[in-house]
Amino acid sequence: MNNHLTLELMTPQGDIAEIIQAIWCASAHSEGDQWLACDGATGVIFPVAGELFLDDQPVAPPYAFQQTSTHASKLSFSKEARFCGIRFNPTILPQLHATTHSLVNVESLNTIATGLKKDPSLSAFVALLSEYLTLPKVINRGTEHSKHLIRNLINLTPLETAYQRAPLSQRQLERQVKNQCGVTPKYFERIYRVKMAKQAIKDHPFMSFADIAQACGFTDQPHFIKEFKAIMHITPAKYRKLLSDSQSKQTKLILR
Prior knowledge:
By secondary structure, the protein is of the alpha+beta class. Helix content is 46%, strand content 19%. The model is unreliable at 251-256 (pLDDT under 50). Keywords: DNA-binding, Transcription, Transcription regulation. This is Helix-turn-helix domain-containing protein.
């Protein structure tokens, strides 16, 4: 995540990847903040030790659901805080709740939280989740069109083209995605464009913002800067500086 945190992360493969983006555990070396990008996904956070805040609101044990947000969320933590989480793909959490899936019922989540108090490592977390991850695949035909549209937007397919590729009307898709994810397809398009720009800044530290704006489909550089700041709560220039400062610190540690 950043210099304040050590992050252990597992990206599921196979059928589970249809449901879960990531399973992760973090430990804080010092007090700090981390901005979490909004990408339409949802999750469950398990605070294990120390203090944890999401958008300045305390995340109290044993767990808290992270709902879809229309902007980046600020995660704040105390020194030596430990916390773990599950990151679900868009549309999945409402399905799990609607089908009373055991992965998200109170008893299961309390059992997982109790286990993490004993061992908050990634391997222990995955072991605690294992019986729920082997349950039958969550199937909801009503969300298939939404998921197809979102996959197109993740791949930066223009929104109008994504609508044309779907068997439902634009109005039906807009209503369906909004109901299932809490944000509109248009907003999904904005988030993923910014997410692509964020990765471009990381991969190409000397690329001009004008070139990044063009490569990522923004109208121009001012539009890119405005959208990036609105969604990430940080300017592209400041984000690039944070990446550069982080790299410099890592280099100094290696040289020592």
